[in-house]
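Example 3.2
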Amino acid sequence: MSGLPNSNPSRVAVGPQVHPPPPRQYPSTPGPIRGLSVLVILALTFYLLAARGQTGKDQSVSALGKIEVTARLIQAPDQFPNLGAYRYTYVVKYEVLAVHRQDPDRKYKLSPGDEIFVGHYKPWLPRSEIKDADWGDDPLGGKLTRFVVGEAHRLALDYDLQDLAPSGVLDYCFPQGVNRFFALWTNPTTY
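Structure, written as tokens:
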């Protein structure tokens, strides 16, 4: 074996040397496909959450009264007056967010952004508990449990506030006589 060039009997032949692969290099920002997929997932999540929101629509609110709106409560007392056995209708202030049913008599044309003043009979009670002998057998109520300024309500309204209020009206809202309604049905909504 000495006749072979560059042969050294003390060296053992080893195969090609294997080096570990270099560490993977990640881009400094997400790629366009990754960014677009994240945006699509977020949009879908928000859509599904919004669709789960409570619209306040039910058979009663859609059938009662002459007008149906979703409105945000913008002015009401923290606690309604305690007047003993006196069962009154209290007028609170709303801002119209959406009109679902316009007045068929065209007496009141409401639009989003309008201020309306709505009388609620026995406002200290949940709407499902307000019916009594003074009101009679006509439908009156809703699913709302309490009035909180800033929350939105879906309302079935009639515009004969003074005639419909069974035991008198407490109306501290100004201007008097403008956009005054009586709530026949009130449901909460996440509008």
